[in-house]
């Protein structure tokens, strides 16, 4: 099966504040870098945007995709079943409060279903080449806001 590796990261200058996201997609010898920014956002939103935009950048379906992220928020929502629980519980968390960032989680769901996506935690700022590159892309995107 064809496999794509994705690294993602989000960053915020203040939380909330100006934020950016970056992603590196790799397929064999091919690589693509993407990034974006928002003037008023949170770090968690930027972490999710990085994953959403990376998955949107993939053409077609039926891919085996491995997403590496340093976001415990994103990784735990997938690996620990939070996302499924939130949907089942009418988008309420374990405290019976509205789930934060519902708009992004709802945008992510069909993208996760389109391909076979596995997520893996990478330790942030630990020297991982691709995580560091994504962080740089996200921070450069923030600077582009002016």
The CATH class name reads Alpha Beta
Compressed to H and E, one letter per element, the order equals: EEEHEHHHEH
Assigned CATH superfamily: Ribonuclease H-like superfamily/Ribonuclease H
Q: What count of helical segments does DSSP give?
A: 5
Side by side, the strands of the main sheet go: 3-2-1-4-5
- Arithmetic mean pLDDT: 95
Give me the CATH fold name: Nucleotidyltransferase, domain 5
Characterize the structure shown.
The chain is α/β, with parallel strands linked by helices and 146 residues long. It has one domain: Ribonuclease H-like superfamily/Ribonuclease H (Nucleotidyltransferase, domain 5). 39% of the residues lie in helices and 31% in strands. It is built from 5 helices and 5 strands. The protein has helices at 43-56, 72-79, 82-88, 102-114, 129-143, and strands spanning 3-12, 17-27, 30-41, 64-69, 116-121. Strands 3-2-1-4-5 form a 5-stranded mixed β-sheet. Helix 1 runs parallel beside helix 4.
Architecture blueprint of SSEs:
Layout (H helix, E strand, L loop, with lengths): L2 E10 L4 E11 L2 E12 L1 H14 L7 E6 L2 H8 L2 H7 L13 H13 L1 E6 L7 H15 L3
Helix pairs in contact: 1-4
Subcellular location: Cytoplasm
Keywords: Cytoplasm, Endonuclease, Hydrolase, Magnesium, Metal-binding, Nuclease
Catalytic activity: Endonucleolytic cleavage to 5'-phosphomonoester
Descriptors:
Nucleotidyltransferase, domain 5; cytoplasm; single chain; alpha/beta; 146 residues; magnesium
């Amino acid at each position: 099966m064809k496999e794509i590796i994705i690294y993602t990261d989000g960053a915020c200058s203040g939380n909330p504040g100006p934020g950016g996201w970056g992603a590196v997609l790799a397929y064999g010898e091919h690589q693509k870098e993407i990034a974006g920014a928002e003037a008023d956002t949170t770090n968690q939103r930027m972490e999710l945007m990085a994953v959403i935009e990376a998955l949107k950048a993939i053409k077609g379906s039926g891919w085996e995709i491995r997403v590496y992220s340093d976001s415990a928020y994103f990784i735990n929502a997938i690996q620990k079943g939070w996302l499924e629980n939130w949907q089942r519980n009418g988008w309420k968390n374990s405290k019976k409060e509205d789930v934060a960032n519902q708009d992004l989680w709802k945008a992510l769901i069909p993208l996760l279903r389109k391909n076979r996506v596995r997520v893996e935690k990478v330790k942030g700022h630990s020297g991982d080449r691709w995580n560091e590159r994504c962080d740089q892309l996200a921070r450069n995107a923030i600077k582009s806001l002016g």
